[in-house]
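Annex B, item 7. Sequence and structure tokens for protein A, then protein B.
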Amino acid sequence: MQATDTEFVYRLPRNAGNNRPGSHRSNSRGAGMNFVSHAKLLDQPDPRRLDLRASISSIQKDWLVRVNQQRASITVSAIIDVSASMHFGAQHKKLHVAAQFLQALGFSAGGLGDTVSLQAFDTIQREDLTMPARPGRGLGQTMASLIQDSIPSSPGHASMEALSRCIESVAARADLVFIVSDFHWPLDTLEQLLDPLAGSMVVPLVIWDNAEVRPPQGKHLLSAVQLGGRRTRQLWLTPAIRKQWISNVESRRNAIAAAFAGRDVKPFLMTDGFDPEALSRYFMEAGV
């Protein structure tokens, strides 16, 4: 995949909890630009931050220094579904869209000073596609190539146990977690799987192909092949079938939204490739 400098803007809805310098709001006090309060020089022995005006006005006549809020970096984790259904696409595989996102994520996180880790799953947790958290704008290209060139470990659907293992691998360290999938698997246990991420911001990226979402116009005889299988079905696309197709897509979209609603999480749907500006708006509209 050709390298790109595409990026998007993301922010946490809360202050970062670590002390590594970066670009996000934090609870730490230090060499930041946002003034928080004054402190006595004896308590904060840093003469460089001495505030003469405040010291002169002090009732106790103490020497006062300015205490600022330090900005911090965060750890971002991407969990990618690489199962057989993610290898489908009329023009580009859905994994190609996932790879575009990873490229942008690496470039965006590198610019903010954040670290990024990678996990992947299909029927098993793909340890061969795992990368520990590290900084660097070039990391996105490495992750994208690793995912795009991957081969499913088996033709089956993604495993919830495998996803659970990926979540457990990042839960203790990740501040922001992207779960990237078409979510073409049972959703009944998804909310429970997210329990370890209670302290993290979770962003589900739903990747669908236009060929899945929009049925062809007119009457067509379609040959439908089950992913991972060899059986082919002939389907005559009548107006009634087309209407049912559209209804099924809408029902699935609502089911995915409902699965995350209990966590106050809104999925981000992509059907026309990766749009970094739309993802930036997603974070802005979330009020973060």
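Protein B:
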Amino acid sequence: MDEKDYASEEEFLKDYDSSQFEKLSLTADMAIFSVSSENPNNYRKLSKKKFSVLLVKRTTYPFKNKWCLPGGFVGIDESIDDAAERILNRETNLHNIYMEQLYTFGDVKRDPRMRIVSTAYIALVDKNKLEDCLFPNASWFSMDILEDEKEIQVSFDNGNEQFSVIISKVLKSPTSDRYQYIIKKDNHLAFDHAKVIVSGISRLKNKISYTDIVFNMMGEYFTLGELQQVYEVILGKELLDPAFRRIIANKVEKTDMVKTGGGHRPSVMYRYRGHHE
């Protein structure tokens, strides 16, 4: 059948019938990461850094009583970025933190209610410095990550609950270095949020080597030892001091402040150079 010849776009839109298409819904989900100190058993040792993610316990079906990333539906009259900010404030009481789009997750059966596509974000914060209070059903979980060529295992612990997920890694093509993630074991996280978390960790690992993104997790002042621990926790490996100093040489500046106490030798405090350019 020949298409109708319209005189203008306004005339076309007035006559347009959108009911011919099936509907889908859009959500925004946030993987909020932090690297922060845990109190050491020995006061003479440097506080151990832990990689953490913020999870919210669902109070309704589907996946009632399971943990998920903060998220929600995008309103018909708002942008995805605006929805992410709104949802972040509503579900965690957090605001004014670094956030960027991660990936769009669109598996057909990712939500049992209906066809729902999610635009996921990663957000970075120094949770030790937060002035905001989390809502009661939100909790920080520390993460221990074990990864090899075939799978990733992430263990979660918030002090009261512990669980783990296992994600299989499959190369998207023989000539690609990008992986498709497949959930192999997950009894505690809702939807496909295990894949979102692993994808966010992978993005952060990649970006930490060529951007200054890590400083969104730091306080205004820090020692080089503290900064090195954050790099090592995210990368999942120890860094030799000379290599680390080369990485951050042009990113930080020395201050006149010195950190003392706790049985440690005094350490010079640094700050991110980008705050002052």
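Comment on protein B: The mean pLDDT is 86.
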